[in-house]
Amino acid sequence: xxxxxxxxxxxxxxxxxxxxxxxxxxxxxxxxxxxxxxxxxxxxxxxxxxxxxxxxxxxxxxxxxxxxxxxxxxxxxxxxxxxxxxxxxxxxxxxxxxxxxxxxxxxxxxxxxxxxxxxxxxxxxxxxxxxxxxxxxxxxxxxxxxxxxxxxxxxxxxxxxxxxxxxxxxxxxxxxxxxxxxxxxxxxxxxxxxxxxxxxxxxxxxxxxxxxxxxxxxxxxxxxxxxxxxxxxxxxxxxxxxxxxxxxxxxxxxxxxx
Length: 258
Ligand code: 13P
Known about the structure:
Blueprint lengths: L7 E6 L7 H15 L5 E6 L16 E5 L16 H6 L4 E4 L2 H7 L3 H13 L3 E6 L3 H5 L3 H12 L5 H6 L3 E4 L13 H19 L1 H4 L4 E4 L7 H6 L5 E4 L6 H12 L1
Helix pairs in contact: 1-11, 4-6, 6-8
The structure holds 1,3-dihydroxyacetonephosphate.
């Protein structure tokens, strides 16, 4: 499984941006060009689904495509949805699941997230599972309970063999840090990582838990990227706003690579 070479993972979540395909292509090509020179970084771009099949990756490119969401069924009467099989067909390797914007704005439940992870594994897509607490939950010191609930529910019916046979990333995205310019202290990021590992170890044992990369997301910038990795002990970053500005995202990649 991943991280044997200790590659850091940087994922761009473009959300519903940019406005046009020509801007998307320009941004994608700029990042793609940069990643060709790098060997110790894995870069994933998650654009709006409409453009997944149009953003081209060649054999020598060091970049992969991710979807921002998918349905758990493989086909059928699900108006507006996209299936894991369609993503595979478009050469997509990763899928962001359980992002707080989907949980809050579109009613995505832990049960749906679980069904989506199972569907991703079945279709050999790598889930990027997002978890994290609201500001109220943080104030009430409920972060640990939120992590336990979100992780335990996301992994229902998933065996340790499946975790070992597939790749899955967990991203700690405090909801209050998204788009706010605020991030947790590096010590708190490290504690979140250790807590996620502990919960996973409780479910699957330490050996399996050690194999699941844990990433951070929420107001990642050029200024904090390297410290989140080094002081926060994270295996990678999930970048929102800063990932739709080519120069800024490339500088984040460079900061982590160096
Ligand atoms: P920002 O980097 O804009 O805070 O967004 C984080 C995020 O939600 C990535 O999934």
